[in-house]
Amino acid sequence: MKKLILSALLLMLIAVPAFAKAEGEEYLNEKYDISKVKTALVMPLAYDVPAPASEAFFNEKVSQKWNDIQGKIKDRFTFLLKTPQEIVERDNYIKGAVQTGTLSPQAALEKAISVSGEYVDAVMTPRVTMCGNSVIHHPEEVRWETRYRDEEYYEDGKRHTRSVAYRYKNVTPARDERVSNGAVKIEIRDSRTNDLIYGVSVTATTGEGFFSNAPSLTTHICNVLQNAADRMIKRLAK
Q1: Which residues of the chain have pLDDT under 50?
Q2: Counting Cβ atoms within 10 Å, is residue 39 exposed (0-12), middle (13-18) or buried (19+)?
Q3: For residue 28, with 0-12 CB atoms within 10 Å meaning exposed, 13-18 middle and 19 or more buried, which class applies?
């Protein structure tokens, strides 16, 4: 029974994609008193690279992931998080402006940035900086290994058993592995001076499992984004 359970666990482990350890780099401005930050404008997820043509809802799903992260982290910081729409509404109220019609998301974003220094202390900007597939060639591997087998022999008319070692060649054929690559950067900057207060950049590559393909770029970038957010929370959470 134990052997069956162990075999099942082993199959589960080798069936999933081979997630490489994410590499992260962080920066914290030690000259900046982050306790002075009381409010921060949180920008929508931006993309420095085009969405993969093979994944129809990449932008929507990854942006939704960032929205979900916002909902989970808003109570983890010592400062309040504000959306672009909230900044626009605040600006209209303070200045007594009468808005005719509804601003497009892009227009609201641009207006929020232009007046952010009046209403928030910092601006948090997430960006997808790398996204794509590549192929890693693994050449043939030849390893000589040792196994042992029991052999019977007779001595003085009696049967005995002994363990005999023998060498064999273990060959892993050459193969091409398709991998998913991704990188995400999150920055928090002073809304008035644009000084960098905190930044985190995470890069990761995920390969194939023995019985599975590399994950979609959508899934991969969502995982990288979560990793970057987790690092930010660990460093800045109250």
Answers
A1: 2-17
A2: middle
A3: middle
